[in-house]
Amino acid sequence: MMGIGFPELMVILIIIMIIFGAGKLPEIGSAFGRSIKNFKTSMKEAQEGDEAVAVDEGEQAAQVEEGKAEEDMTEEEKEAAIRKKAEEEGEAKDKAMKDAADSFTASLPRKGSYDFSKDQEKTKEKS
């Protein structure tokens, strides 16, 4: 229904030509292509570097714990330390919420433990 077809693409191309001019279109196209290529390579590096990043963050956290002065830390190290602290706090909150939910669930009657017929018998005996 709302797909972009050939006529819509032509209208968009004409508007782009009016705004930027025909001379700038090759430059815009190459810049767009480079940005897509950079995005793809950064995604590959991110997937391959997940393990390396985890090791680096562990080392940075160890440096912070050892008392490394904040002035000596780079911005990336500071951000990594903040991110690590936030993750630990989030995990602690998650654990506390899970423990509260488990205790609440444990306080509920078990499935099948309530017998309606016994309750009715007790009510008849009282009357």
Key traits:
127 residues; mainly alpha
Q: Would you give an account of this structure?
A:
This protein has 127 residues and is an all-alpha fold. It has a domain of 80 residues. Helices cover 78% and strands 0% of the residues. The longest helix is centred in the last third of the chain and has 33 residues. The radius of gyration is 31 Å and the shape is elongated.
User: Into which percentage range does the β-strand content fall?
Assistant: under 5%
Shape descriptor: elongated
What is the gyration radius calculated from CA atoms? 31 Å
What are the segments in which pLDDT stays under 50 over at least 5 consecutive residues? Answer: none
Distance between the first and last residues' Cα: 68 Å
Q: Major sheet, described briefly?
A: none
In helices, the fraction of residues equals over 70%
Protein structure class = mainly alpha
Mean pLDDT: 78
* Number of extended strands: 0
Number of helices: 5
Order of helices and strands: HHHHH
Summarize the structure.
The protein is mainly α. The chain has helices at residues 6-20, 25-48, 50-65, 75-107, 116-126.
Layout of helices and strands, plus pairs?
Blueprint: H1 6-20, H2 25-48, H3 50-65, H4 75-107, H5 116-126
